[in-house]
Write a structure and sequence with these properties.
CATH superfamily: Glucose Permease (Domain IIA)
Number of domains: 1
Shape: globular
Strand content: 25-35%
CATH architecture: Distorted Sandwich
Helix content: 10-25%
Number of helices: 2
Radius of gyration: 20 Å
Order of helices and strands: HEEEEEEEEEEEH
Length: 150
């Protein structure tokens, strides 16, 4: 049975109004278990104010500028909307970027913009033998690669 042109237009209209989309589903959230555990974490709220950093974070005044993938790798968000970056080029490390707007999720190439913001809270994490991640001193070289397009 063939559809009448009016019925076909009606079906297309309903599909468009109901949110038919070719966009990709959201990637799963990162679940990073930290070796250290503090009461306050980036993304928490205290007296109505958002906590934007914590012990081990480096604060960078981006003033609306972009940050870039330091290597080829992958990005994903956690439940607090911090962006995590990992790469096979540095397999035992993850880099956490909090305070980023319009993050680029999924596969990224070295030098590709992965977000922007007013203030970046950066942390470097190293995988521990028990599978958790410890915040470690960040490398100045990694920060420079993140802050300058290559």
């Amino acid at each position: 049975m063939l559809f009448s042109p009016i019925l076909l237009i009606f079906i297309v209209l309903i599909c468009c109004l109901s949110g038919c989309s070719t966009s990709q589903p959201s990637p799963p959230l990162a679940e990073i278990k930290l070796y250290q555990n503090w009461e306050l974490q980036a993304g928490d709220r205290v007296a109505g104010y958002e906590v934007t950093g914590g012990l081990g974070d480096i604060s960078i005044a981006l003033q609306g500028r972009s940050i870039y993938a330091p290597f080829n790798g992958d990005t994903q968000l956690d439940q607090r909307r911090c962006l995590y970056f990992d790469s096979p080029e540095v397999p035992s490390y993850k880099f956490r970027f909090c305070g980023i707007q319009s993050p680029k999720l999924g596969k990224v190439h070295q030098g590709e913009t992965i977000g922007s913001g007013e203030t970046l809270q950066f942390a470097a994490l190293r995988k521990q033998p028990n599978g958790t991640w410890a915040i470690v001193e960040p490398s100045k070289t990694i920060l420079e690669k993140t802050l300058k397009a290559s």
